[in-house]
Amino acid sequence: RGAGAASGSGTMVAALLLRQRGCTRCLSATGSGRGLARRDAPFCWRPCPRTARAHAGLAARAAHGQSGQSVDVYWLSLCKVGMEAAKLVGERHLGVEDWENARAARDEGTRLQRLVSSAMRRRVLARYSGGGSGKTLAFGREEGGKPFLVDGAGDIHFNVTHTPTLVGVCVGIGGPVGIDSENGRRELRGSVGKIAKRWFSAQELAALEACEDEAAARRRFYRLWTLKEAFLKATGMGISSSVSLRGCAFDFADGGVGPGREPSTDIRFEILGGGSDGLRGEDWGFATIEPVRGDFLSVCWKRGDREGVTVRTHRCDIDEDTGDFLFS
Q1: Would you tell me how many other CB atoms lie within 10 Å of the CB of residue 84?
Q2: What is the C-alpha to C-alpha distance for residues 1 and 195, in angstroms, rounded to an integer?
Q3: Structure confidence by residue, pLDDT tens digits, 145-191
Q4: How far apart are CA 57 and CA 13, in angstroms?
Q5: Tens digits of per-residue pLDDT, 270-320?
Q6: Helix axes 202-209, 192-199, angle to 10 degrees
């Protein structure tokens, strides 16, 4: 169906749900304790701020066709983005803490990455939480340091990654997500085999050694690395956690990714040693894309009761006239 049809149906559904939910303060005042206003109860069209944001986010997600059955991946190439463009999107979208984080960067390249990734995070999330620039969105951090949206938007899960050549943001509804990217053209500190022996499982190392040449081994290496990092970021665990990079194993057929191709989701995953901290390999889904040749990006999501999740990719660009992001 066309974009207009999708948008129209989403807006109608959102309006119906908004009318049902009403304001939590009004529901309490009228004696309804089940989340739905009584037919004979007066209805408040000026809900409290937290409820208003939740309603606006519901409408925005419906209009974009986002549900628990999809994970959205947004990416932007930094190859042609200069500091002036980074500052421009920063002025339009960033909050005070974002600017402080960017200024603390040790070099200009890292500063540019932080400016663009923080601005893109806010702009993307604004599409699911009520629109606007995203400058007023508030964030908190879980115990392990993973950021989350506050103020009534708890069902929106997101994660961010950036390298010198790429920024990625993933969004999912109703379950945790993680994303990681690597520039496969950069020089490594040591050979692929040496690094793999430290961080990869025995079966992953065997698959690397079976690659036909060094180029194929490097491509497999970066896919494995980003998948592992995406999983650990989705769970909120670090590489030194009880699972760790070595404590999980991936397998997939070589090839299958490249610019212009659909996300590769035929990925087998196992948590070695029978699982840890209640984690089970079958509870997680994965996908890898290569939006630009040599830039690998992997995403992870918790399945739960979500089967048949669709991974949707969106290219982003910067409008240097307005300082806004363009989505396609």
Answers
A1: 8
A2: 47
A3: 889 998 755 689 999 999 999 999 999 988 999 999 999 988 888 78
A4: 13
A5: 998 765 667 888 999 999 999 999 999 999 999 876 678 999 999 999 999
A6: 160
Geometric angle at alpha carbon 272, from 269 and 274, rounded to 5°: 110
Residue 120 host element (H or E) = helix 108-126
Residues 64 and 53: their CA atoms lie apart, in Å, by: 16
User: Alpha helix (H) ranges present in the chain?
Assistant: 3-21, 24-29, 49-63, 83-93, 96-103, 108-126, 192-199, 202-209, 214-235
Q: Please name the residue that has the structure tokens 């990625």.
A: 168
pTM: 0.80
Q: What is the pLDDT of residues 181-231, one digit of tens each?
A: 999 988 888 788 899 998 999 999 999 999 999 999 999 999 999 999 999
Tokens representing residue 200 in the block: 């990869």
